[in-house]
C-alpha cells in the first residue's frame, strides 16, 4: 500500500544519517494514516492483502490508544477473511497461499476474542471455527492433510495418536477460553441469566480450564509460565505471555464471582462454600502471576515483546490482592511492596501500549488509597 520511491524519508527512502534525527512517532503516524486510507478504500474489494493490512493497522492504532479505529480495522479484517473463505482450505486443495490465508483468518479470530467489546460473535466464539484446521507452526511436523481441529465446544480433535499441537494452536485454545470467561463475567454484571445459570456456567468453565493441560499432553505449562519452552529457551516473551494469559483466565473466572473482587451488585451468586473456594483460588492464581512476573523481570528479559493483555492482567492481579488484603485487614508494607511489581510491570508496558495508560493511572490511585487506609 505504500510503495518505496526514491527521494528521502517523505517518499519512502531513509538514509542511514536520518536514523538519529528522525521523529519516528510522527513518521509512523503519517504512514499509518496513509495506509489506513488506502486499505479502507479497498475494503469493498477484499483480498488477502487488505486483510493483512487491516490487521497490522489495528495493532498500530491499538498501541496508540485509538480504540474506535482499532475496532473498524479488526471488523473489516475479520469480515473480509470470511468472505474470502480463508478458513476453508478444502475448497481448492492445499497450497502455500492457502496456508497463509488460513493463518490470517486465525489472526483475525484471535483479535476478536481479545476483547468482548469487539467480539460480536453471533453465538459463541467456538461456533465460528468448529471443524476448521488449526494452524501449523513453521517448525511443526504436521501437514495440512491431517490437521488438528476444534469441535463445537472448543475441544481439540486429533486426527491420529501421533498428532501434536504447536504454539499457535495452544494460543487459539487459551484465547477462546479467555473470550468465554469474559462473556461469563459480562453475563453476571449485565444480569443475563439467573444465579443457577451462572453457577452452572462457572463450574463448566472451571472444568474446561482444569482439563486444558490434559488436552495438551506434550505441553509444559510450567516452562511456558517461566517464559521457556522445553528443552531450551525460545522467544521468552511469547511463551511468558501465553502462560500468563492462561493463569489470567483462571484468576478472572474466580474473581468475577466474588463481590469484593469484582464489585458485583448481587450479594451472592454461589453458595457460601463455593464463594469461599472461589476467593481462595483467585488469591492463589494472583500469587502465581506475581511469582511469574517477578521471575520474568529478574531475568531482565525485554518487556517490549510482551502482549498488551499482560498489562491488563497486571491490573486485575493487583486489584485482587489489594482488595483482599484490605477486606481482611492484612495489608502491610511487605504485601504492599510485593504487589507493586504489577505497577512496575504495567508502567513499563505503557511505554509501548498507550491503551494501558488509564489502567496504570487507576492502579496508582488504588495503591495511594491503600497506603492511606
Automatic annotation (TrEMBL):
GO terms for cellular component: nucleus. Keywords: Metal-binding, Nucleus, Transcription, Transcription regulation. It is found in: Nucleus. Coiled coil: none annotated. One of its GO terms (molecular function) is DNA-binding transcription factor activity, RNA polymerase II-specific. This is Transcription factor domain-containing protein. The lineage of its organism: Eukaryota, Fungi, Dikarya, Ascomycota, Pezizomycotina.
